[in-house]
Design a protein that fits this description.
Elements (H helix, E strand, L loop, with lengths): L6 H27 L2 E11 L2 E10 L5 H18 L6 E6 L10 H6 L4 E10 L2 E12 L2 E6 L4 E5 L3 E6 L5
Parallel strand pairs: 2-3
Antiparallel strand pairs: 1-2, 4-5, 4-8, 5-6, 6-7
Length: 168
């Protein structure tokens, strides 16, 4: 059964998006100085508590010692900034095998890899695409969909995109 979206849900979503943008703005210089990149930031209410998840990556991979170091540094920075209005649980993590693809540079970086992409509104009756990333640039990405179609998607119509794990 589809979930109904109420006005307060939309207001909370807009507030959370504003908080996420501010967090990204604040932590980006720190993350860049550590030669890392922000892959994704999520802020949500779960089981009556606020959870802030920050997914980071770096050349050669992001390990447990990186998580520990960045958790302390980012936690201190955010505490000083008061960017998060409520008390929250901070989780720093690697992006994982099914990492989110959010920005054009993410798609460019993973050209040739298989991705799962969902769009906001159906295109020719299809909302989900799975296939190799063929091209990315100028605000769009082209996927060689498993249906045999090559589909070009503007980045602003993509609701969610993730790499498909490649297990050997």
């Amino acid at each position: 059964m589809p979930r109904r979206i109420y006005q307060e849900d939309h207001a909370s979503e807009v507030l959370y998006m504003d908080i996420i943008k501010e967090i990204e703005r604040i932590i980006d210089p720190l993350v860049a100085a550590e030669k890392m990149e922000i892959v994704d930031v999520q802020y949500a209410s779960e089981h009556g508590r606020k959870v802030l998840r920050i997914f980071l990556d770096k050349e050669g991979g992001f390990g447990l010692s990186d998580c520990t170091k960045m958790s302390e540094k980012i936690g201190n920075l955010l505490d000083q900034s008061n960017a998060v209005p409520d008390s929250y649980v901070l989780e720093i993590s690697s992006p994982g095998l099914d990492r989110a693809l959010k920005k054009e540079k993410d798609f460019v970086k993973f050209i040739g890899r298989k991705a799962r992409v969902s769009v906001y509104a159906p295109i020719d009756g299809q909302r989900n695409f799975v296939g190799a990333i063929l091209t990315a640039g100028n605000g769009s990405v082209t996927i060689d969909d498993v249906t045999g179609k090559k589909v070009s998607l503007a980045l602003d119509i993509i609701a969610k995109a993730r790499l498909e794990p490649e297990l050997e």
